[in-house]
Design goal:
With 364 residues, this protein is an all-alpha fold. α1 packs antiparallel against α2, α7 runs antiparallel to α9 and α8 packs antiparallel against α10. The chain starts with a helix and ends with a helix. 50% of the residues are buried.
Length: 364
């Protein structure tokens, strides 16, 4: 059932990358980031919840089916999220957060520590939900972006503050029991879905080209880049990282929040961004490098490596310095190819990723 639920996010990531593709620029990037926060928060809280309940029970299956419908509404509203479908997106997101939280409070009971924890989370979800819905009702897209950015900030701030509420205090991360292995597997699978979306976008972009040498080179280079990023995570970090959180004991919840909720969010977002960069390079391989293209072509892999470095450091698995060295190398490459063609910058970035993929064999 959890894997079935994740299928909605195949569509969601496709729509998200299309939003960035169509509105490539600083404003479009900000809109994509805000939408991604909502998608990630909706998915991640569901992944945490299914670590405490049996996803094969009829009641839980029914809950996940309802959450799946709401996720599908969110995904279908992404391209028009700052136009006609802002209200639908906001209502679907808030419905997911409140319904899930309410069910978990009822499942545990208010006297149970986890029931209390979820009750506080529910309070924060209601607070941010008001802001999300207000933003969805606004007609000016720029004003909506600002209001939704504030709502996303509330959602991000809540766990950092321990879901503190007046008169109720905060909830320490040690009070959250967590199935670390389950959460690690869920995050790995969603990251794999993001990689699948990137491959699908690369293939789709190439089918619409005229078979030029430049487009062919961008197609092959982009695929190699995706393989290199996949390998440095799945061949060298995924399984050891899962074992690390399974052995974490009392620190499992803290590690789950840091290494999986935050670090993996960065990596998943990065894969979506990289897919758009490769699409742009296939579409116009000999076009000049713009600031927007450089931000996604260089910034996407850099964000992925930064998320990987943070995950490695927090989990205490392997060396986290080589991904950081990769970020610095990408900065140098980005500067050196700032006035080159898009294909040249993509090739340079891919070379850095390939070197890191080989380095990972030795470093870890």
């Amino acid at each position: 059932m959890e894997l079935f639920f994740d299928l909605v996010y195949v569509f969601a990531f496709t729509q998200l990358s299309q939003l960035l593709y169509e509105r490539l620029g600083w404003l479009g990037g900000a809109e994509t980031a805000v939408i991604f926060v909502a998608l990630w928060w909706a998915w991640s809280y569901t992944a945490w919840a299914t670590g405490w309940v049996d996803p094969e029970r009829a009641a839980v299956v029914a809950l996940l089916a309802v959450l799946m419908v709401a996720s599908l509404v969110m995904a279908a509203s992404i391209l028009q999220g700052f136009a006609q479908r802002g209200e639908a997106f906001a209502i679907a997101y808030v419905t997911m957060q409140l319904l899930r939280g309410g069910v978990m409070v009822r499942a545990f009971g208010r006297r149970d520590p986890m029931g209390r924890n979820y009750l506080q989370l529910l309070g924060w979800s209601a607070l941010s939900g008001v802001v999300w819905i207000v933003g969805g009702e606004l007609h000016n897209p720029h004003t909506r972006l600002l209001v939704w950015a504030a709502a996303a900030a509330v959602d991000l701030l809540a766990p950092a503050l321990g879901f503190r509420l007046p008169g109720a205090g905060a909830t320490a991360m040690s009070d959250w029991s967590v199935a670390g292995g389950h959460l690690a597997e869920r995050c790995r699978l969603l990251l794999l879905i993001a990689f699948g979306e990137s491959i699908m976008r690369i293939g789709e972009a190439w089918t619409h080209r005229d078979g030029s040498f430049g487009a062919d080179c961008a197609f092959v280079t982009g695929f190699v880049l995706v393989v290199c990023l996949w390998s440095v995570y799945f061949l060298h970090h995924a399984e050891p990282g899962a074992r690390s959180i399974e052995r974490a004991g009392a620190d499992a919840a803290q590690l789950a929040r840091s290494a999986f909720m935050y670090a993996h969010a960065a990596m998943i977002a990065a894969v979506v961004v990289v897919a758009v960069a490769i699409h742009k390079a296939i579409e116009a391989p000999y076009g000049g490098v713009s600031a927007a293209f450089a931000a996604i072509c260089v910034g996407g892999p850099a964000l992925f490596l930064l998320g990987l470095a943070l995950s490695k450091r927090w989990l205490g698995h392997g060396q986290h310095r080589w991904p950081l060295a990769g970020v610095l190398a990408l900065a140098v490459v980005g500067t050196a190819t700032a006035f080159a063609e898009q294909l040249v910058q993509l090739i340079a970035v891919t070379i850095v990723a390939a070197v890191l993929a080989v380095w990972a064999q030795v470093a870890d």
